[in-house]
Amino acid sequence: MDEPREELRDAQIKLSSVATDPFGLSGRAMTEALIAGERNPRTLANLARGRLTTQHDALVEALTGQFDDHHARLLRLLLTTVDHLTAQITVLDQDIATTLADLPHPGTTRRTTRRHPLLCRSVTACWPAWTRSPASARPPRGSSWQRPAPT
User: Fold this and answer.
1) Which is more confidently placed, 15 or 136?
2) How many Cβ atoms from other residues are within 10 Å of residue 57's Cβ?
3) Among 13, 83, 70, residue whose Cα is nearest residue 41
4) Is the pLDDT of residue 145 over 70?
5) What dihedral angle (degrees, nearest 10) is formed by the CA atoms of 67, 72, 74, 78?
6) Is there a contact between 37 and 72 (Cβ–Cβ < 8 Å)?
7) Residue extents of the structural domains in the chain
8) CA torsion sign, 130 to 136 to 138 to 139?
9) What pLDDT digit, counting tens, does each position of 1-55 carry?
10) Is the pTM of this model over 0.85?
11) 3-state secondary structure string across the chain
């Protein structure tokens, strides 16, 4: 998501120097207003929400720049792309969650006779060790798998 930030920097808008997340709720509202044609830094700073409202003067200074119509067109294109990719990631996350929920839990008593030809004696034995360990065990770093609640 560096391209939208670069486009704002090119227009001398330094929103990321004040806002922790320049595309959070407040930052996105200000960016949308810039795209819609609002150029007054005070009006844009008034769109701040939450903790960002305490930094009104710094926001006014950060939102003072040379944002032109060509910046607005490029920023709209970039934000549309970011929104599209975010929606695709959400759909994939839901698909993964559904697929994981459909998998049999390794602690169930139902045994399968399917055998994995190379790696293990049965499908239940193929589950990684951290899924069969006590509830206090954690999945490997970077894994988004969540242990199902015990029944």
Assistant:
1) 15
2) 11
3) 13
4) no
5) 110
6) yes
7) 2-96
8) positive
9) 567 777 777 777 888 788 888 888 888 999 999 999 999 999 999 999 988 888 8
10) no
11) CHHHHHHHHHCCCCHHHCCCCCCCHHHHHHHHHHHHCCCCHHHHHCCCCHHHHHHHHHHHHHCCCCCCHHHHHHHHHHHHHHHHHHHHHHHHHHHHHHHHHHCCCCCCCCCCCCCCCCCCCCCHHHCCHHHHCCCCCCCCCCCCCCCCCCC
Q: What is the pLDDT of residue 88?
A: 96
Identify the pLDDT of residue 130: 47
Residue 7, token pair as written in the block:
């486009």
Indicate the residue type of 75. L
Tokens linked to 142: 């970077």
Burial of 7 (0-12, 13-18, 19+ CB in 10 A): buried
For residue 114, give the amino acid letter.
Answer: R
